[in-house]
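Progress against Task 2.4 (sequence-to-structure conversion) is shown through the following example record, which the project officer requested during the mid-term review.
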Amino acid sequence: MTARIAEPADWAEIVALRTRVFVDEQGVPPEIEQDDADATAVHGVSRDAGGAVVATGRLLLRDDGTAAIGRMATDAAARGRGHGAAVLAVLQDEALRRGAAAVELHAQVTARGFYERAGYSAVGPEYLEAGIAHLTMRRVLRPPGRV
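Structure tokens generated for the chain above:
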């Protein structure tokens, strides 16, 4: 399974996938699904054999030397096939390439195992975000002081 950094031509498919997963499937209000950070984020995509975008996520770089991954979405028909893991890996690689020492994300509680298998650990209690139970998870990409 391969993923790559998205190009502007991918945006319509990214929006359609995120709308299906977050708005239609999970009931997230459409007015909060997209935000101003989309314009500056690095987006990742994975496509199925037919060429359709079936997984996506975004990377935001923070001023403190860490990165945040969010808006991870995989089409229901493609779950469990490695597309989400491929997007997560390409976003982590990009974060490291851009100098981030660690990545944080707000994981839906139901996806905790997925992120733990990718090396993330929970940091703090559960909370509600967009009406869905989440927890903050973190993964160190490189030890402090290492380039």
